[in-house]
Structure formats: structure tokens, C-alpha cells
Amino acid sequence: MGSVDGADERYVVGVDYGTLSGRALVVRVRDGAEVGTAVHEYRHGVIEAVLLDGGPALPPDWALQDPEDYRDVLRHAVPAAMADAGVDPSQVIGIGTDFTACTVLPTLADGTPLCEVPELRHRPHAWVKLWKHHAAQSHADRINALAHERHEPWIGRYGGKISAEWQFAKGLQILEEDPEVYRRAERFVEAADWIVWQLCDEETRNVCTAGYKGIRQDGRYPSTDYLSALNPGFADFVAKLDGPLLPLGERAGTLSARAAAWTGLPAGIAVAVGNVDAHVTAAAAQALSPGRLVAIMGTSTCHVLNGTHPAEVPGMCGVVDGGISAGAWGYEAGQSGVGDIFGWFVRNAAPAGVASHERLTELAADQPVGAHGLIALDWWNGNRSPLVNHDLSGLIVGLTLATRPQDVYRALLESTAFGTRMIIEAFVEAGIPVTDLVVAGGLASNRLLMQIYADVTNRPLGIIGSAQGPALGSAIHAAVAAGAYPDVHRASAAMGRVNEGVYQPDPDNARAYDALYAEYRALHDHFGRGGDDVMLRLRAIRNTALDAAAARTDTVLEAIG
Predict the structure, then answer these.
(1) How far is the CA of 41 from the CAs of 72, 394, 555, in angstroms?
(2) b/e sequence 53-84, b meaning 16+ C-beta within 10 Å
(3) Neighbour-count burial of 553, counting CB atoms closer than 10 A to its CB (0-12 exposed, 13-18 middle, 19+ buried)
(4) Whole-number Cα distances in Å, 12 to 6, 37, 114, 136, 477
(5) Residues 424, 316 within the same domain
(6) CA 357 to CA 361: how far, in whole Å?
(7) Which helix or strand (DSSP H or E) is residue 96 part of?
(8) Domain-embedded: residue 357
(9) Paired strand residues for 289
(10) Do 376 and 409 have their domain in common?
(11) How far is CA 31 from its chain centroid?
(12) Beta carbons within 10 angstroms of residue 405's beta carbon
């Protein structure tokens, strides 16, 4: 972006850790101007098939990462962003970070990841479990069933179901599938908190991930009695989670000499408390007022909004006091697959000549609402909200010999909008108003998709005024941690940006989509709420077949070895 003027200006750095890469953003404190940015791709990406360094094949629904890839973002992206900005490091007063969640790892007491302990490196459960690690669904089911059986007071705060993605499901899976790794894990920490630990050499926990991903409500975690009832060996799990718990925008510590050498930033500057990529974006989008729903749309979508009071919303990811910003009850919901679904179709199903998002969007935009005669369920990666079941799968109804690629593509776009409408209606029915939407993330650039969302939800839709919403949000929190603003609300007003009401619902299209949405909801309830469990049976058959094939491969390898 080039050099900037003003030796007396102050800057902060926001670092956004995504699924495949990390981005650093240099931001001017007084007005939020973005003056430098850089991206570093994770060397190992998502580890889904075989563990690194000749490790074993991974079972279905696993998704791991290497924590060294996260350190490399600090070593490469931050210095590159500073060089792009042309800012003198002495002008930087703070750094803030955000992460995908629930992305979690077991460590030693000093924060060393267990996958970096030589004798544990070949054990899959010693590695980072990425947010989309869905192999703990059966453990989540047991957590939920026992919570309802015992009338645990916290289960309603999570819409009645804990996700397979969350900390407790992943922790229970480790205990029951690799007890030795569980025993060696002295800490079980969100990557959002672990990277802050790496930056300032101080262990902290943030209220956001503790509340949404760690079942911490009203000042406490689930009881030891409850955990023992799940599995006697699980009674100490909360002890592995406990650490200094800090509100969002607080200072976690100061940049250590080691991290200063990685980043090229001055030692001693403020390090903000960790945060989640979706939740931190609300500040960047100036969307902290109650009723304004932020949809962070990328490979998946996370929906966050503030409310004035706590309510139990069926199927939501959680409601947390101060979970988005202090003084409000933050609500979270999500869709496990959005951009990933569109990408799947382009890569695997679209024929040559139209196998691009640009061409398919162009062709799909030409047709009237409903002309393709299709309805799809957006469950290619399971359902996060409101069904909280990652064993569910996708569905397209209405295919004929006349169906064209652009018809299917548009139906997939619409399916994700219908999924968002389901979430909005769940909020509204629970007494949490949703007045308008603000979209952030890479999918905001697709004009057809954005208009579909405005029409399907029948609400005005704004677009965040930054292409780097999470990184800007992290920078805003860094400015607060450094003392440049008294709170996140005032920092958001000065440094955030949004383009209001860019898309308005078309009344005719909204009425047409009402009819299609009724069909979507009927299919949603039939296949997702017990009308027919065929998707779950098919998943079980698939997993059995894959496990058998993996066992045969291991037998052959052992014989060769």
C-alpha cells in the first residue's frame, strides 16, 4: 500500500487467523485507515487424510492443523504488512489477533503443543483440532443427552445442543480414544488464546471462546459431578481449561522479546486478549447495536448480534454476557458450509466452459426466482444452526434432464440464504429482534448472492466497508488494549466502517421466495428433525466402509513393513 505520512501517527496491527492462511493488517489508530497488509498461507493447510511426518491415516471427519503454521504467520505476514505500510515500528502501539473457533489444542503447562513433544507427534489427538473437525459428534450427542437428563441449567443457553465442534466434545473424544494424550495434556486451550500466549508469554483466556465454545455460563463451567457422570476420567477437564479470564478489548500482556523478533514490532507494546474471527468483525462493521446481525460469509458463515437480555434460542451456538462487546448479551449462530458448497460445485460438478463462479453467477442471474424448479438443503458440511448435527448431508430436489449447471448453482446460493432465514426466524421467535443485516467476508463481493439474501430475508443488507473485517476488528481491539480508546464501542465508531443499505429487498422477489422457503423448511424439518434419518444412516454406512478400507490398507502396510 506504500508509505504513509505523519511521524506522530500511531498504528496497530490486527492478525486474522483463517482456515487456510493468516492475514496481518496495519491500521491507523485515529481513523481506522488500512495502510498495509500481507497474507501468509499455512504450509500444511488442513490435515484431513494422513498425519504429517509419516503418521497414520486419519478417520473420516477429521480436520487437524500444525501450530507451527500459526507462528509462521507472525514471522512472515506481520513484517510483510509493515513493509507494505512503510510505517516505522516505533509508531505501533498494539497488536490484536482473532482465530477460527472452536479450534483447540492440548498443551503442556508452559503452552508447548503436545504435537511438538517428540514421542507424541505420531498421535493424531496431540494435534490442533480445527473448527471443522466433526469426528466428535457421538461425544456431543452424549453430552447433550446427559445434560437434558440431569436438567443442567446451562444447556438452554446453547439452544439445547452442544456442537461437535466445541471444546467439551473434542476433549471427551481425546479422553476416550487416546487416554495417554488426554493425561499428558496439562492445558486444553483455544488457538485464539494460545497465539496470545505465544505473543506475550502469559496464559490468558477470553470470555468469548470460554462462553461460546467452553460452556462457561454465569461464572462457572459444568460441574465435576456432571463431567464424572459422562466419564469418570473427564472430571478434571475444567482444570485443563482454567486460566485468567479477561473481557474483550483488555490487555492480555505485552509483546515479548521473542515475539518482537518474530514480528519486527517493538517489545513491550500491548497485546489484546484473544478473540474469534466472527465476533471481532462486529466492531469493524460498526454493528454493536442490538438487532443488527452480522453475517461473516466465507467457507462457512457465522452470524452474530447483540441483544439487550438473555434468551434461550433453539439451536443457537450460544448467548454470552459480553461475548461480542461489554454491556450486551452476544448471540452466535452459524452455517457449517457456504462458500465451501459453491466451491464444491465448481470444482466437482460444473462442466467445462462454465466451471467458474463468475460464469455461473452471470448465467444464474438471468433467470426469474423459482424458474429452475429446485430446492437444496445447505448441509454439505452438516448443520450448525439450528439443528446442531454435523452428520447431516446435502440434498437437491427437483432435478430433471432439463436442469442446467447454472440452475443448480443458483439453487445452492439460495439454499444458504434459506438457512440464514431459518436462523433469523429462530431469533425473532425467541424475542430477539433482527432489524437488518451487515455482511462481511469474501462472499460479499457476489452481487447476485447479496441480492438473494436481501430478498429471502426481506431485510436491508449493508456491506462492511473493509475487505479485511476480522483483521480490522482485531486492530480495533488492539487500540483499546493500548489505551487509545476507552472502550470498543468508541473505537468501533472511529475506526470501523460500513456501507449502509446497499441491497434492498425486491417486494416481488421476496414474495416468490416465501413460497420456495416454505418448501425448504418442509424438507429441513423432515430430514433434520426425525421425519427420515436416511442421511444419518448413509453417513454410518460410509464411515463403516471407509474404516474397513483403512484397516485393509494398514494390514498391507504392516505386512510390507
Answers:
(1) 9, 29, 35
(2) eebebbeebbbbbbbebbebbbbbbbbbbbeb
(3) exposed
(4) 15, 12, 32, 38, 9
(5) yes
(6) 6
(7) strand 92-99
(8) yes
(9) none
(10) yes
(11) 27
(12) 19
Taking the C-alpha atoms of residue 95 and residue 482, their distance in angstroms, rounded to an integer, is: 9
* 486 belongs to a structural domain: no
Residue 519 and residue 537 share a domain: no
Inter-residue contact 377 to 415 (CB < 8 Å): yes
Cα 416 vs. chain centroid, distance in angstroms? 16
Residue where the block lists cell 428433525: 529
Could you tell me if residue 479 is inside a domain? no
**Segments forming the whole domain that contains residue 267:** 11-272
Residue 492 forms part of a structural domain: no
pLDDT in tens, 87-140: 999 999 999 999 999 999 999 999 999 999 999 999 999 999 999 999 999 999
Total number of domains constituting the chain: 3
505: cell is 429487498
H-assigned helices in 430-487? 447-457, 469-481
One domain, residues 159 and 173: yes
CATH number of the domain enclosing 334: 3.30.420.40
Contacts of 435 (CB under 8 A, 6+ apart): 291, 292, 459
Do both 238 and 171 map to the same domain?
Answer: yes
More confident residue, 554 or 117: 117
Distance CA 485, CA 362 (A): 45
Residue type, 186: E
- pLDDT in the model for residue 560: 65
Question: Among 388, 399, 292, 269, which residue's Cα sits nearest to residue 335?
Answer: 388
Contact yes or no for 305/293 (Cβ under 8 A): yes
Question: What are the tens digits of pLDDT across the range 180-203?
Answer: 999 999 999 999 999 999 999 999
The CA distance from 445 to 152, in Å, is 43
